[in-house]
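Morning. Coffee machine broken again, so started the prediction first thing and wrote up yesterday's gels while waiting. Chain of 275 residues, entered below exactly as on the submission form.
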Amino acid sequence: MATDSDTAHTSADAEEKEMSFLDHLEELRWRIVKAVIGVVLGTIICWVFIDWIMDQVLLKPITNLNADIKANPGSGMQPINLQNLKPFGQLFLYMQVAIIGGIIVSIPNILYQLWAFIAPGLMPKERKYVKSIVFFSSFCFLAGIAFAYFVMLPSALTFFAGFGSTQIQNNIAISEYMSFIISVMLAAGVVFELPMVSWFLSLLGILTPAFMRHYRRHAIVVIFILAAILTPGTDPVSQVLLAAPLLVLYELSIGISALAWRGKRKREAEREKAG
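Came back before lunch.
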């Protein structure tokens, strides 16, 4: 005999199935609006703390590097001087940083709105994991940004300061410097999403752990080539610093893919028994 809760679930499922194309577009529109609102709020917060973000976060790697060079005059490295070369250049730069910072701050909300839009197409048991997925996706992205900031950027700037003739001054446009560090941090954040991407592709049946294990050697070669391309110069230490977490992420992705397939087979078995 069906209970009231079963009837409610059946009714909710029926309503989701009856959603028209226009209903889905309306749902997507509101999800986008909520994501944009989150970005706007994040941008306002970043603008309030923009001086701290610029001086104590984004310019800190250069400040620390120049302090080390000054303390060790025999290191052979040249200090890096940042210059503003455009009228109102700092104003537009601050606005750009505030907007990008707003996007980063609101990443959990953006990911939640994305998964909330996808959720109606998932099974009821899968929907309860949406919050966990949002948490781990946000954690992976922010971990990538932190890795780029604390490991990759100091290594890259140290190489840059020590490369070339000491007769040439390192005067860099502030816009070029900001573009460099922001692009590196965002790229690292996206790369660190590899485990979550593997889980999602495995859930869709596109990626399998057997496939990833079979092409592990190829992946290792690709990872080291990628590390050599992304790491400035030929410093093997910097290449290893970038390649090591990528290797760990790849192995972690294999395990996550296996868990996703195990859960998928279990759900299919349950459906066959129920059917």
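Residues 21-174 form one domain. Going to sketch it on the whiteboard this afternoon.
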